[in-house]
Amino acid sequence: MKKDPWKLIGPGLVVISVLFVVGSYLYDRKVHMTVVSHMPDPADVPGGNVYAATLTDSEEGKAYLRLWEAKTRRSNEGRYDLEVRLNDAEFFRGLAVVEGKDGRKAEELYKVYQDRYHFDRKLVFTVMMHSPVEGLFDMHPKQWMVLRLDPGGEYQPERWDESNRSTDSHRQAVVVFAREDGEPLVASELKTAELVFRDPAKKSETVLRWDRGE
Fold it and tell me: Which DSSP category does 56 fall into?
């Protein structure tokens, strides 16, 4: 008696079809969860992956732009233009809001930044140097810088983390100041913070100042 080949193949095709449907569903589910849960990797300079053109579309973005400007000090008195931003807890909170898109992700990003920079006990700045001519890599600003606190005295940089986007005419880096004994540098009684750039070539200094509450 001859067997119908379709009776043998049919069940196999059904099983394969079911496995294909289930596999497709699980794959789509995985992709969906990856997209939903994705958070941007922090840039090597805080805020380096946020673009001003996209911030004006939301109230949160506009608030962050105002915060960015309030934390930034500029000077063009030296051999290069200087732009420095204080990256304190308020700044990182605003950055996390515009990067996180919703409350849960914003809180997670804020914690990521806190673990990375320890801004609850250290003072963190982004330093940008601009020059119409090249030669910025020949300079050593970490050796010229000092943080002056009132009250609190003076401190040398703990770290100078150069950005991978730096060029010989446009440098940017994250500079971190901390106490040698490990105690918090950020104190509730802090009134002012001054970042002093002492240029050995010109025997002069540039002072950028932040008052508490700014």
Answer: T
CATH number of the domain that residue 189 is part of: 2.60.40
d(CA 177, CA 213): 19
Q: Which helix (H) or strand (E) holds 116?
A: helix 103-117
Q: What is the DSSP letter of 133?
A: S
- Cα torsion 111, 74, 155, 192 to 10°: value is -80
Q: What is the mean pLDDT of each run of 10 residues along the chain (214 residues)?
A: 54 50 44 41 80 79 93 89 95 92 86 95 95 87 91 92 92 95 87 89 84 78
Residues in the chain: 214
Stated as kind and residue range, the H or E segment containing 38 is: none
CA–CA separation, 29 vs 50, rounded Å? 29
Whether residue 84 is contained in a domain is answered as yes
Contacts with 58 (C-beta within 8 Å, 6 or more apart), sequence order: 98
| Any domain includes 149 | yes
Q: Is residue 137 part of a domain?
A: yes
Q: 153-156: long-range contacts at Cβ-Cβ below 8 A with a sequence spacing of 24 or more?
A: 155/179, 155/185
**Residues contacting 74, CB < 8 A, separation 6+:** 81, 82, 83, 84
CA distances to 74, 82, 151, 157, 208 from 195, in Å: 11, 12, 14, 10, 5
Give me 119's structure tokens.
Answer: 């801004």
